[in-house]
Amino acid sequence: MENQVYRRKGAVTTLQLTTLAILLAIRFALDYLPEIDLGVTKMGFGFVGAALTGAIAGPIPAMILGAAHDILKFALGGAKGVYFPGYTLTAIVGGLIYGLGLHRQTKTPLRIFLTVLAVTLICNLGLNTLWTMMVQKKAIMAILPVRFYKNMASLVVNSVVLYYLFNNEPVKRLIEQIQFPSLLRKK
To answer: Which residue windows are transmembrane per the record (predicted)?
Structure first.
């Protein structure tokens, strides 16, 4: 039990800061897992770290960690291509969506699917398509059809993976124990 006398209201605790550091490390570790070939597309596991961060820490810390991960990944040489701040914005929006959709919420199949659908439509098909058009100077119709089918395939797989992750008993207990208080809602 923390001593509430010496804690400023709204201050980040040592446990929360440590948890954020571990979540960032998990996101980097997931980047190094090999991608799975689904035939139509390849699927990585970066979404798991983003969703886990949103579920544990909430939208605001998930946004900050998304930006930190994107920038550090590029700075440490783990990103492909040149740095483009639009992709950092996508990581921030993804953290917001996962945080709003999963933090302190019951992880039902519908909730997980709708959260992953929002990330897929807004971040992957929306923002990332726009950034790819700008960086690669390609017309939208040249890249959107392929991106659409790739993202529809990964939508289903990502939803199933997150459902089983968040409904695994040890993971559920861990999230309940270390989950951050909500910064957006008054109780």
So the answer is: 45-69, 81-100, 112-136
**pTM: predicted TM-score of the whole model, two decimal places:** 0.90
pLDDT in tens, the chain (187 residues): 444 445 566 678 899 999 999 999 999 999 889 888 766 667 889 999 999 999 999 999 999 999 999 999 999 987 777 899 999 999 999 999 999 999 999 999 999 999 999 999 999 999 999 998 898 888 888 888 888 988 998 999 999 999 999 999 999 999 999 999 887 655 4
* Segments forming the whole domain that contains residue 133: 14-178
Residue 38: count of CB within 10 angstroms of its CB: 13
Please, what is the Cα angle at 37 between 149 and 109, to 5 degrees? 60
